Amino acid sequence: MSVSVVRETKRILRKELKKWIAGLTEEERQLQSENVVKQLLGHPVYQKSKRISVYLSMPQEEVNTEGILRHMFTNGKICFVPQYIGPKMEMLRLHSMEDYESLPVTKWNIKQPAEGDAREEALSSGGLDLIIMPGLGFTLEGDRLGRGKGYYDKYLQRCAEHSTGMPATIAIAFKEQIAEKLPVTENDRRVDEVLYGYKDGS
Length: 202
Known about the structure:
- The chain has 6 helices and 8 strands, in the order αααβαββαβββαββ.
- It is an alpha/beta fold.
- It has a 6-stranded mixed β-sheet, sandwiched between helices. The protein has a two-stranded antiparallel sheet with strand order 5-6.
- A hairpin with a 5-residue loop joins strand 5 (137-138) and strand 6 (144-145).
């Protein structure tokens, strides 16, 4: 499959996946979010990780990560969150739920540290043990369809080249985001594991 065909296939899939996610009710999103966060918090990789990056969720579009933030702050874990500036993403330290609440909101309706905000940056201060990955679609084998900007693929490449080595990666998703197969290129990095929620919350 040529690069242009893969790109077009991804574009169509992104549109479909966004439609499926939009079709979830508020209750379904909440139940699935609670379910998948519970799975993550009980996961041995999460439990042994100290320095963790977690995305700040977009309302109505992603598994809600506020429960993960709360758990990290109350259990002595060091939390890093994305800051997107132009084509580059950094992971900057977040200190508390109060710190989270005070973050400005971007044009994408997600919170992130402001440009020029002097915060500890993950790769220059010891690296990461775990990255909790967002995305639009996933296979259970770990293939991932992002939103098209390549932020996480580029960041994982930087991690791989960093002296602290590659962190573990766990994606969290709604059940509707799981696909049997996704179009990928050599630049698309697989995640180690994909956890997904269930509508009934069980």
